[in-house]
Amino acid sequence: MEIAQLTDVGERRHSNQDQAGVFYNQAHEPILILCDGMGGHNAGDVASEMALYQVGVAWEETEHKPLAEVKAWLNTIIKATNQRVLEQSQKYQDLTGMGTTLVCFVPQGEQGIVAHVGDSRLYQCHKDVMIQLTKDHSYVQELVDSEMITKEEARNHPQKNIVTQSIGVTADVNVSFSTITITPGDLYILCSDGLTDMLADDEILGVLENAPTLNEAVQELIDRANQAGGYDNITVLLMRAEGGEDE
Q: The whole model's pTM is what?
């Protein structure tokens, strides 16, 4: 598989609280992780970095697991990570109130496990269509689910960045899971809301279809998000599944 990633502070923020990385276990199986921190001062980047490395380093120590066991493992490690971030926020005054979103993707052959908390997303680009594989844990998503507003209204809603689940804010965290079919040649996109708040799906898809390489694709996506305003940190992590024509 081919992987590319890039993060940028954006045009309006003074620090980057996003984190992303790829880690491999003892069977050389990857986990892709992206976190978007929140909190005053530098607390958000502390939370996102803690979450990224606690999950990633723990994955590096594991052997091969069937997908059913991967799901259980992710649930355990994410909840342990939530507890650790919460404890640190309560211990140090400068870190009070910190938290982070988290989205993890473990591809394994023809299937993959997705786990997420918050509003960072995973998409699949399949046959010229961009499919959102995660559902935001957010106030605005709840309004959409209740049919109080439309998806189009949600995009510009003034409270669109209020998350209802995050790592490190409360003792209990609900992790959402899904098992997906991995199609050879498809692109999988992990991203923070700094990308999706600035660019519509069709513009993101157009970049991915036309960029010569994944590295050029992530750079162009970040450039376009900044050109559109760059109101937040922007992070993109792309993976192309093995077996496509481009390989």
A: 0.94
Are 18 and 246 contacting, i.e. CB atoms less than 8 angstroms apart?
no
Each residue's pLDDT tens digit, 119-172: 999 999 988 899 999 999 888 878 877 888 887 777 778 777 788 999 999 999
Pairing between β-strand 187-191 and β-strand 234-240 as defined by DSSP bridges: antiparallel
pLDDT at 245 over 60: no
Integer Cα distance of 189 and 130 in angstroms: 10
Task: Give the H/E segment covering residue 2.
Answer: strand 2-8
- Distance (Å, whole) CA 237 – CA 222: 11
Residue 99 has pLDDT above 50, yes or no: yes
d(CA 60, CA 53): 10
State which amino acid sits at residue 169. Answer: V
Q: Which residues are paired to 237 by β-bridges?
A: 5, 190
Task: Report the distance separating Cα 53 and Cα 102, nearest Å.
Answer: 12
Cβ atoms of 102 and 167 within 8 Å: the answer is yes
Beta strands in 63-128 (DSSP E): 99-100, 102-108, 111-117, 121-126
Q: For the chain, how big is the Rg over CA atoms in Å?
A: 17
Share of the chain above pLDDT 90, in %: 81
Reference 121, options 102, 98, 140, 106; nearest CA is 102
> What confidence score (pLDDT) does residue 244 get?
56
Angle between helices 201-210 and 214-227 (to 10 degrees): 140
